[in-house]
Amino acid sequence: MTELRDALRAVLDFLGAGNLVLGIVLLVATPFVDRFLIRRKRVSFRVHYNSKIGLGPEKLTDETSDSGQLTRLTRLLDRLSIVVIRIRNTGGYDIDPDDFDRPLTFTFGERVVWNARISEAGSAEVREKLRAGLRFFRTDGTDSANGTNGQVGPPVADERDSLRTVRDKMAQRMVRWIGGQAPAPKEPEAEPRWHGVRLETLALKRKQKIKLVVVLEEPEDHPGGETSKEITATGKLADNGIIKDEKRQRRFTLPRLTGALALVLTAFLVLSLVFASPPDDPSVRCVSGDITIRGSSVFMPTMKAMAADYTAACADATITTQATGSIDGVRWLASADPATSAALSDGLQQNPGGLVAQQLAVVVYHVVVHAGVPVETLSTEDLRRIYDGTYTDWNQVSPGSPSLPIRIVGRGQSSGTRQLFEKQVLNGGEGGLSSDECVEKNRDPRARTIRCERESNSDVVAMIGAVAGAIGYADAPSVAEARKKGDLKAVSIDGKTFDTAAGLASNYPFWTVEHLYLKGEPGADSLLAAFAEHVRKHDSARLRLKDSGYLPCVTPEGTPLELCSTR
Questions:
Q1: Does pLDDT of 116 surpass 70?
Q2: What are 354-369's pLDDT values in tens digits?
Q3: Nearest to residue 25, comparing CAs of 266, 272, 267, 271?
Q4: Among candidate residues 537, 539, 527, 533, the one with its CA nearest the CA of residue 560
Q5: What element of type H or E holds 81?
Q6: Backbone phi, psi, residue 317, to 5°
Q7: Helix, strand, coil proportions of the chain in percent (round to 5)?
Q8: Predicted pLDDT at 148
Q9: 228 and 111 Cβ atoms separated by less than 8 Å
Q10: Kind and range of the H or E element at 191?
Q11: Angle ∠(469,470,474) on CA atoms, nearest 5
C-alpha cells in the first residue's frame, strides 16, 4: 500500500493536479468542439424500416379468380420490399446542396428500385424541391436524369398514408394490371433497372428531418424467404462535414475515447487525492495554531509558498500572509500579538523598537528600462541625474540617440525596495509623484521629472514594458519573468552585476538581505518559532528560495552564509 501511495504521489507531483483537471475538462469538451466548431455540418440517417410488403394471396381473392394470375402476382409481391430512411441535420448549421462534395446516395445490394418518395418534409414546397432532385441510377452510370425513361416515377403513397396503406394500394395496382385494366407492361428487361437513389438537391435546416421511402424488388432468381437487408450509403460533405449512420455501432468513437480517458484521469485524480496524501515528513516540526505574516510585497509570494508547504505537512497549522510593503509590515508588528505575528522586510529597518530580525535570503534588484531605451549600462551618477531631473531625455544620457522623454516608474513611501534604492544607489531621495500613467506630468506640471508609482514590483515592470522611455527597478525574479515578453531590459550599474550563483557581490550596490522580524523571542513550542525555524533551515524552504531566484542565508550544511552578514 505504501508503494502504491508513493507511486501515485510521484505521478501526481509530476503531472500536477491542476494539469489533470485541465486535461479532464479538455477531454470532455473535445467532442463538443469537434461537433460545433470543427465538423459543424452533419447529416445523420437511420433505417427505420427494411422489410417485405408482406401481402398474402388471401387478400386478393375478391379481386380476381384467375389462379394463374394470382400466382404470378403473389410471386411478384414476394420479391417486393419497402425501405424507410430518416435523414436529419444534426449539426449546428443549415445544409445546402452546395455543401456536398458528393451527394447522399443509397444503394440496396441486388435489389432494384421501383420508386422513391420524400416524406415528412415539412411543407409541400420543400417536398417538391427535394423530390425534383431525386435521381435513380444504374451501376453502369445511367441515371434517371439522362438515361432511358428518365422521369421520376409516380409517388408511392401520400405522406399521410401508413406503410400498410402503401402495401394495399400497390396490391390493387398489381391486380388491375393482371386483370387487363391497364396496358400490358413491357418485358422486364426493357424497363429501366435502377440500383440506387441519389438526393442531388438535399437541403436541410438545422434540426430538420425528412424520410426517404423506397420500394424495391428482389431479382427473380432470389430464393424465397426473408428479403435482402443490404443498404449502402455514400456521399461527402465539404469543410470536414460528416455523414453518419446512427444505427451503426462503432467500437471506437471520439466521444467514447475522450470520455474513457476523462474517466481514467478522474479516477486517478480521486485516488491520488484520497490515498496519496503527502506522507508525514519527520523533518518538519509540526505545531498547531494560527499565525499572520505581513510585509514585503517582493518576498511575500515565496513566503506564501513556504507556508503552503508547511501547512500541507501540518494540517493543524494555519498561516496567513499579506503583502503590505516592508515598512508598513514592521510598523504593524510593533503593535501586534507577539505570539502570532511576524513581518517581512527588504533589508534591516532602523530603530525597530525591540523587534528581532532573522536573516532569510539575499535579494538582488535590477535597474530596468523599456526595450527601446538606447543604454545597456548606467552609472550611479547617471541615475542620480535622471532621478533629480537633471536629465529629462535619453539623448542627454546617450548623446546622438533620438529624443525620447525619460519617464520614471517608482514605488510608494512604504516600499522597502524604494528605501534600498534611495540608500544604496541614489544616496538621496527618489522624487515626488507627478504623473498617473507615466506619460505626462498631469498631477504636478511644475515637477522636474515625469514620475508615477505602482504598488508592487510586478506592477512596476509591467508599466516599464508598456511605456516608451520608462525606467525603474525591481527584484530579480520579477524582472526575469517580465523579460520573457521582450518589452524591457535590465542594465548594469557602473558596469557591475551581482553573481548570484557564486554568491559574490562584486561591489554591486543594489541588493539586500530579506529579514523575518519577530516581536521578541517566541515560545519554543509555538507555531511561530517552529515556522521561523522551518523557513530558514528546512531543505524544502531552501529549495523554494532558490527556485524564486534568492540565495538562502543558511547553507545546506546548516551554517550561516557569510555574505548575509555583510549587510
A1: yes
A2: 899 999 999 999 999 9
A3: 266
A4: 537
A5: strand 80-89
A6: -105, 140
A7: 35, 25, 40
A8: 37
A9: yes
A10: none
A11: 150
Report how far residue 351's alpha carbon sits from residue 71's, in angstroms, rounded to the nearest whole number. 120
C-alpha cell of residue 300: 511575500
Torsion sign, CA atoms 155, 160, 165, 169: negative
CA pair distance 233, 205, nearest whole angstrom: 21
For residue range 203-260, list pLDDT tens digits in order. 999 889 999 999 988 887 766 667 788 999 999 998 778 898 988 765 556 666 777 7
The pLDDT mean for the chain works out to 81
Neighbours of 179 (CB within 10 A): 14
What nine digits make up the cell of 294? 505581513
Say if residue 32's pLDDT is above 90.
no
Please state the three-class secondary structure of 195-262 as a single string: CEEEECCCCECCCCEEEEEEEEECCCCCCCCCCCCCCEEEEEECCCCEEEECCCCCCCCHHHHHHHHH
Q: Could you say which DSSP state residue 484 is in?
A: G
Q: Environment class of residue 344 by beta-carbon count within 10 Å: exposed (0-12), middle (13-18) or buried (19+)?
A: buried
Picking from 475, 477, 383, 375, the residue whose alpha carbon sits closest to that of residue 425 is: 383
Contact (Cβ atoms closer than 8 angstroms) between residue 526 and residue 289: yes
Confidence of residue 193 (pLDDT cuts 50, 70, 90): confident
Give, for 529, the enclosing helix (H) or strand (E). helix 527-537
Per-residue pLDDT, 163: 39
248-286 pLDDT, tens digit per residue, is 765 556 666 777 777 877 776 676 665 555 555 678 899
pLDDT, residue 445, reads 94
What dihedral angle (degrees, nearest 10) is formed by the CA atoms of 324, 325, 327, 333? Answer: 40
CB 286 within 8 A of CB 314: yes
- pTM comes to 0.52
By C-alpha distance, which of 424, 428, 429 is closest to 511?
Answer: 424
Distance CA 488, CA 486 (A): 6
For residue 275, what is its C-alpha cell?
490515498
Instruction: Tell me if 43 sits within 8 A of 243, measured CB to CB.
Output: yes
372 contacts 468 by C-beta, under 8 angstroms: yes
User: CA 388 to CA 212: how far, in whole Å?
Assistant: 86
Sign of the Cα torsion 377, 383, 385, 390 reads: positive
Return the closest-CA partner of residue 114 out of 197, 235, 34, 31.
197
